[in-house]
Design brief:
alpha/beta, ten-stranded mixed β-sheet, 14 helices
Length: about 400
């Protein structure tokens, strides 16, 4: 959460007020209002940097408050969103317009983003789309965009696709393919900016944005590099039937479904990536926890085998889906990897780099398989590796799913 701009003292204050999930919107709103009040006081007294920092903290907390209400028509959700927008507006003003709100027309609706610019005159710079997970919003990248991207001269665009945040609140739900088309619309926008080199636009995706980013990389060759962490790349039975129920509840809200059986049949069964990742041509980086509860590791590795583009994977020992134990490392490494990828490195068509990152600080290079597997490899992975080693054309198949 600190990588998303939350101060740990704010986080502690919020959860001191919470004994049940129903209390979350009030708790986030209460502490957000406190931070916003302090920001306004510092702004009135001319302490612009202090005020901007507090507006950032308030914005991400107002974002959490509105997220906790799963009803786009709820007036409280709209009110919390307006407060978040106000805090971002003040932050932008105090930072000289380096953070700008973006609203784009898209398929009869609108999608929303925040543009983050480096200081000074910038022309033809690399750019990175920052994709939030299903339970994140564009404001969640306010801190990371400045720390890891614009400070390095990279333009960043933190987005909300169909089904997310402000985009969902304005009525646009997610379906099987419209998120990657929304990424295409954001690529259109970035390519038209004088600050951006349209040949050097990459994407950093967390969780579901790693999945959506994989779909976009497979269908839009303008995406020049992809770093995807915690991406659900296996079956979607695991995430919706075995993980905590909030994942399915949230995605049904994002996609506009109220009938669970229809959701399972019409969307869930069609979501696994399968052979689609074989269409990716840009360099890709995948990172996943050894015990990610949304994608079994053997399925993530089988998905990786299907990628024909220059590729790299890191498996983090003992980590679960949020990758909380390595979050700061992941955010920095993903940004640096993208910066190098967009400069032309990692383009060797045969590139295949694998790491298993141990909790004790060691890293085993050349394989991402856990050592406790004792050299044994799950059958689905072994078959794919054999086919690739022999140069066998991979048959059309759906690796995970029911179709």
């Amino acid at each position: 959460m600190e990588q998303l701009g939350h101060d740990h003292t704010d986080f502690d204050k919020v959860f001191d007020l919470v004994q049940s999930g129903a209390m979350l919107p009030k708790a986030w709103a209460t502490v957000a209002a406190q931070a916003e009040q302090r920001a306004a006081q510092h702004e009135r007294n001319g302490f612009a940097r202090t005020a901007a920092d507090l507006y950032l903290r308030a914005a991400v907390m107002w974002g959490r408050a509105q997220y906790s209400i799963f009803d786009a028509t709820d007036a409280r959700k709209r009110a919390f969103r307006e407060r978040a927008n106000h805090c971002v507006e003040r932050l932008s003003e105090l930072r000289g317009g380096l953070v700008r709100r973006v609203a784009l027309d898209f398929e009869g609706a609108q999608i929303f983003a925040l543009l983050h610019l480096p200081a000074g005159t910038v022309r033809n710079a690399p750019a990175v789309i920052l994709g939030p997970g299903m339970d994140m919003i564009k404001e969640d990248y306010l801190y990371a965009a400045e720390r890891y991207y614009t400070s390095r001269g990279v333009v960043a665009l933190s987005i909300e696709g169909p089904g997310q945040g402000e985009t969902r609140a304005n009525g646009l739900t997610v379906d099987l393919t419209n998120y990657e088309r929304a990424i295409g619309r954001y690529l259109d926008y970035l390519a038209e900016l004088p600050e951006v080199d349209p040949r050097r636009i990459g994407m950093f995706g967390i969780s579901m944005s790693g999945y959506w980013g994989s779909r976009a990389a497979a269908t839009d060759p303008r995406l020049a590099a992809l770093a995807a962490f915690e991406a659900p790349t296996g079956d979607f039975h695991t995430i919706y039937e075995r993980a905590q129920p909030t994942f399915k509840h949230n995605y049904m809200y994002m996609s506009g479904y109220t009938d669970e059986a229809a959701f399972d049949q019409e969307l869930t069964a069609r979501m696994p990536l399968g052979d689609l990742v074989g269409e990716i041509t840009c360099p890709v980086l995948y990172g996943i926890g050894e015990f990610d509860e949304l994608t079994p590791l053997e399925q993530a590795l089988a998905n990786y085998e299907l990628v024909r583009a220059p590729k790299e994977i890191r498996v983090y020992e003992g980590e679960f889906h949020p990758l909380g134990g390595v979050a700061a490392e992941v955010f920095r490494f993903g940004a640096e990897w993208l910066e190098r990828a967009l400069s032309g490195e990692f383009a060797d068509p045969g590139r295949d780099v694998r790491h298993y990152v141990h909790r004790d600080g060691r890293t085993t290079d050349g394989t991402a398989d856990p050592q406790w597997w004792s050299g044994a490899v799950p059958a689905a992975i072994a078959q794919l590796r054999t086919e690739q080693r022999l140069g066998v054309e991979l048959p059309a198949r759906t690796v995970f799913g029911t179709e």
